[in-house]
Amino acid sequence: MSAIRKDVLRDENLIRNLEEMAKDTALLHGVLMRTKETPNSPEVVSYAPFTLFPTPVPSALFHQALAVQTHFNRLVDLVSQNPTFLEETLASTIKVDDFTARLFSIYKQVRQECQSQSIVLGLNRSDYMLDQNPEGWTSLKQIEINTIAASFGGLSSRTPDVHRHILKVANLLEECDQILDNNPAEGLARGLAKAWELYGSERAVVMFLVEDVQRNIYDHRYVENELWKKNIPVIRRRFEDVCRTGSLDQSKRLFVDGQEIAIVYFRNGYMPQNYTSEQSWEARLMMERSLAVKCPDISTHLVGTKKVQQELARPGVLESLFPDEPETVAQIRATFTGLYTLDLGEEGDKTVAMALANPDQYVLKPQREGGGNNIYGKEICEVLENMKDSSDRTAYILMDKIQPRPEQNYLLRPGAPLRLNSCLSELGVFGAYVRKGKDMVFNECVGHLLRTKSSDHADGGVAAGVAVLDNPLLV
Fold first, then answer.
1. Strand 468-470 relative to strand 439-454: parallel, antiparallel, unpaired?
2. Which of 381, 378, 350, 376 is nearest to 365 (CA)?
3. How many other C-beta atoms are found inside a 10 Å radius of the C-beta of residue 38?
4. Which of 150, 337, 367, 377 makes an SS bond possible with 400, Cβ 3.0 to 4.6 Å?
């Protein structure tokens, strides 16, 4: 097996014939996004952007990413239960990053109260790129782990059939057989269902906490529909709805619009702009204090910060978390790339000098989710020069820039001309786990996601309008 042949990629008649068929196939299979930008704009639905062909991914590295996911689930959970680690790791960051500081303030307040809920639900996604060293060897390297609102589990459940059909029409039957089944929506829903079952009330509902304008609503709906298939009721509410109608009873059960909430599934709340008022923060605190299962709870949300990621890569840290599991440590550490602190002091000063000397070898990362936040190249120098002697730099970490090998592909976007691009891809692996008290009762890798973008773009995901959905073609 190899990549899509060059003669196929450059067959203009074939590509022209495939283009419209591929778009229609995406619509038929429900690979959809809203184009509505404001509450008052017209309601328009189109296909979510995707690649015309699947992208080759080495089979061994793909399976490595899947195999390590349950270990990452456990790692996230262990760190979330370690207040000393979180407090020491985030001490410098919360002094200069207001958003992380607000989250940490809620974390401290909830810890001071008696813990309301012993059920913990995690739905996360670990993201990787395939790093190619100067000798041509390729290895799997983690970019980040998303512990809140990990997206595209729904749409990536629909893309395999789209690429299978395209490959059949292109008479690439061998390649068609290499597209794997993939259903993260069902797996994520199983995690939600397990937590709902443990909550123990058939009348209680799962609440998706969502944004006012949600272009990616169909991604949510596929997970939601899997819950309805299991006869688990679901509602969708915004922060302002929780502010207006939310309350806790004497047992700290959470009610919104008079309905008891078994699970708060955060598909919102991961960026500062999601909190539009002080009432939004009050609503987040109320939900965290409640008996409802939070996905994620506030401590798990904090585990997803870049500062925690950098600290976990330090020598000896994984060993302290998995003291009797050297193989687990080795599997996790094999995916780490270079991560460097920018805390004030000798070590941080060394990191600054390193970045200023060779900015193209690194990525400067703030404590933010949602794509489009990272800093590259000359801009790293501009940012660090302005704050190299200031504590402001501790709001960031520095990471080695991963160097993937570009592949040729076409990116289909509504309203955009089709052309052959040099592309870079990012592999995401979905994990789901449920813990009750000290017992991990559910821990699975539940699927994967491939996103691809033009190599002209340094940063940005599908929701940010840069990357498109894809499928791995195992080689």
1. antiparallel
2. 376
3. 8
4. 337
* Residues 36, 215: Cα–Cα separation, whole Å: 7
Query: Which of 145, 166, 155 is CA-nearest to residue 433?
Result: 145
Give the dihedral of Cα atoms 310, 314, 318, 321; nearest 10 deg.
Answer: -80
C-alpha 209: how far from its chain's center? 16
In sequence order, the 6+-apart residues with CB closer than 8 A to the CB of 412 are 19, 22, 23, 26, 47, 49, 50, 51, 52, 418, 468
Residue 426, Ramachandran bin (φ over 0: left; ψ between -120 and 50: alpha; else beta): beta
Whole-angstrom distance, CA of residue 291 vs CA of residue 118: 9
The two three-digit tokens of residue 248, written as one number: 């806790």
Q: In degrees to the nearest 10, what's the CA dihedral of 276, 212, 463, 158? A: 150
Could you tell me if residue 126 is left (phi over 0), alpha (psi between -120 and 50 degrees) or otherwise beta? beta
CA dist., res. 265 & res. 232, Å (int): 14
Whole-angstrom CA distances from 328 to 195, 292, 417, 429 are: 26, 32, 46, 17
Q: What is the biggest distance separating any 2 CA atoms in the chain, rounded to whole angstroms?
A: 69
pLDDT (tens digit, 0 to 9) for every residue of the chain, 475 residues total?
457 999 999 999 999 999 999 999 999 999 999 876 666 767 789 999 999 999 999 999 999 999 999 999 999 999 999 999 999 999 999 999 999 999 999 999 999 997 779 999 999 999 999 999 888 899 999 999 999 999 999 999 999 999 999 999 999 999 999 999 999 999 999 999 999 999 999 999 999 999 988 889 999 999 999 999 999 999 999 999 999 999 999 999 999 999 999 999 999 999 999 999 999 999 999 999 999 999 999 999 999 999 999 999 999 999 999 999 999 999 999 999 999 999 999 999 999 999 999 999 999 999 887 667 899 999 999 999 999 889 999 999 999 999 999 999 999 999 899 999 999 999 999 999 999 999 999 999 999 999 999 998 776 567 656 899 999 999 9
Q: What is the spatial distance between Cα 379 and Cα 205, in angstroms, rounded to a whole number?
A: 46
